[in-house]
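Hi P.,

Sorry for the delay on this. The queue was packed all week, but I finally got your sequence through. Input first:
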Amino acid sequence: MLRKILPAIASSTHLTRCFSICPLPAHLQELQRTCRNFADRELVPIATELDRDSRFPAEQIAKLADLGLMRVTVDPEYAGSGLNMLALSLVVEELSRGCGSTGSIVSIHNCLFANLLNRAGTEAQKQHFFGKYSNSSIGVFALSEADAGSDVAALNTKAHSDDDHWVLNGTKAWVTSAVEAQCGIIFATVDTDLKYKGITAFLLDFDKVTGLTVGPKEDKLGIRATSTCSLYLNDVRVPRSNILGTVGGGFRLAMEQLDRARIGIASQALGIAQAALEAAVCYADQRIAFGQSLLKLSSVQSRIAEMALRIENARLLVRKAATDIDRDQRATKSCSMAKWYAGETATFAAHNCQQIMGGMGYVKTMPAERFYRDARITEIYGGVTDVQKTIVAEQVIKQIKGC
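Then the structure:
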C-alpha cells in the first residue's frame, strides 16, 4: 500500500520554500508555484520511468520551452524571459524536486549555453542562434576533456586559422545533452604553449559542420534521462564570425560561466534534497512500527531535523550566490560555497531518506534510491567538492590579506 500512497502524498506536499531572510518578490513566488505545479503534474509521475529507460524528457522540455523556461535569463528580444539568476535558481530547484534529470537538462542549457550566448554574443550571433533555433532547442557547453577536467588550462583540443575559418581538432568529454543538441559552444586552444591564454570559445551549428561526431552515451549512475557523451572534432570548420568573445578570451568566459553553472547545480541539489525530505516525512507518517508512526520516534525526528537544517542552510547559500550575480558583485566564493554545501546536502538528505525508509529505500519501485543516485553528481560536475574547497580557501585568503 505504501508504494501507492507515497507518490500521491509527495506530489501534494507544498512546503513553503522562500528565501528565509526576506520574502521572494511576488513574480518570483508565482514562478516558483508554476514550476512546482509543473513538477508535480508532469515530472513526478514519470521520473522513475525516465530514469529506468534513460529517456530524454522531450515532451516535458517542449512544454517548459512554451513556458519560457529554456531561456530564463535571455533578453526578451531573443524570445527570452528576461529574468535573473535567482529566478533561474528557483526554476531548477523546483524542477529537480520532481526529476533530477530534467532539472539538470534545464540548468545546464540555461546556465552554460543560453546565458553565456546572451551575455557575450554579438548582436549577429544572438540573432542567428536564438533566431534559427526554437525555444525547445538544446545547446551544449563543451569544455572538459579526458585530461582536462578541473585543470581547464590543460585542454588539448586545437584550433588553427585557415583563411576566413578556424579549424577544430580534438575530443571533448562529458558533454551533457550532446545527443539532443542542435548547437553548442566549443572550447579549443589556438596555442597549447599559451596555456589558458590560448583558450577560445567557438559557436557551432551542428547541422552546418562536417567532421563532428557524437560518441555513445555514457552509462551513468544517476541523472540517467540526460545524455552524456564525448564529441569528436575532425577538421571542423568554424567561420571567424562564430568566435564568442575574443581569441584567447575563452578561459575568462568559461570561469565566469562556471560560477553561474554552480548556482544551477546547487539548485538542482536543493531540489533533490527537498524531494528526499518530503518523501521521508510522507513515508514515516504512514509506516507503523512498535505500535506507532515512525514520525513519533525520536531517532527519525532527529534525522528529519538535520535534513531540514542543512537544506535551509544550503538554500540561503544558493540565494546569496544568485543575488551576488544579479547585483554584479564578486560571486566566485559564494557560488563555490553554495555548490559545495548544497551538493553534500543532497547526498546527506538522500542517505537519510533511505535510512528512514529502511529496506523500502533500497528498491527501485520507490524514489529514495533514485534520489541518492541523482544526488551524487551534484558533488562532481561543475568541479568536484575538493576543487570548490580550494576555490573558497583562495578567495578567503585574498580577502583577508587584502584588508
